[in-house]
Write a structure and sequence with these properties.
Layout lengths: L9 E6 L10 H7 L5 E7 L3 H13 L3 E5 L13 H8 L5 E10 L6 H18 L3 E6 L2 H11 L3 E3 L6 H9 L3 E4 L9 H9 L5 E3 L21 H12 L3 H16 L2
Parallel strand pairs: 1-2, 2-3, 3-4, 4-5, 5-6, 6-7, 7-8
Helix pairs in contact: 4-5, 8-9
């Protein structure tokens, strides 16, 4: 069994600690993460409520940061002036990105609405000169059409595409984050991407509380579990795990402007 305390300087580039799965012990989890080597977490909002919560956490915990925006699964009661609210939230000093936004064609959510809101948030990120965190589920063609058109400073989180698509993302100036999926038995694409992507464009994430790595698959995930993905990726690349953690932490800080 891996002794997680042996690693340090760990940056989780994408998490959701506002999720209800943490309601019973959130404060103790967040307070203890630095003792497990976590030096940074970016909590990604899915709507205005979760954005406000993420900012509150960021104010309380020095290692914590927030991204603010609307997720494609959270558009049912989208305020007409949502973009103004998101722009106002970005003025907080610990808000480091627009997001999480993007396209999700797995669910029956009107595609024109998803596309409009994603495009508007891309435009906002360019107007504000901020990075954007991109959700892409079963929507590679339309996501990359907009990335090609606007070329934002983007992180494609939990990347699920092919090596060829990852190479295009890199050509467009994007970063890619990978997490627990690389430990799954059916993770061929993710493993190929993990081995191929230029090391200076790679970030690590958990997507906590989701996507827990093996041997915790199906259970609640937290940022300390990122080391399981780090060990797998480091072995693929012939690197020391701590070296990979150090590099991806610097990448995350550079991408988010921290």
């Amino acid at each position: 069994m891996l002794i997680m305390e042996q690693y340090h300087n760990i940056f989780d580039s994408h998490a959701h600690y506002d999720d209800g799965w943490f309601n019973e012990d959130r404060e103790s989890v967040l307070a203890f993460l630095p003792q497990k080597g976590i030096c940074g977490v970016v909590n990604n909002a899915v709507d205005l409520d979760s954005a406000a919560t993420a900012i509150r956490f960021a104010e309380k915990y020095p290692y914590f940061y927030a991204a603010v925006g609307f997720h494609p699964e959270n558009l049912e009661e989208l305020p007409k002036d949502y973009l103004d609210h998101v722009a106002e939230l970005t003025k907080h000093p610990k808000v480091v990105a627009i997001g999480e936004t993007g396209l999700d064609y797995h669910w029956d959510i009107p595609k024109p609405l998803q596309q409009r809101v994603f495009e508007e948030q891309i435009q906002l990120s360019l107007d504000l000169d901020m990075p954007i965190v991109v959700h892409d589920r079963e929507a590679h063609g339309d996501v990359f059409a907009l990335l090609r058109r606007y070329k934002p400073k983007a992180l494609v989180h939990c990347f699920s595409g092919s090596v060829e698509l990852a190479r295009e993302a890199v050509r467009l100036g994007c970063y890619i984050s990978l997490g627990g999926v690389v430990t799954f038995k059916n993770a061929r694409h993710s493993l190929e991407v993990a081995a191929d992507i230029p090391i200076d464009r790679l970030l690590l994430e958990t997507d906590a509380p989701y996507m827990a790595p093996v041997p915790f698959r199906g259970k609640r995930c937290d940022s300390s579990m990122i080391v399981y993905a780090a060990e797998k990726i480091a072995s693929l690349r012939g690197m020391d795990t701590q070296e990979l953690l150090d590099v991806t932490t610097e990448n995350a800080k550079r991408f988010y402007g921290i």
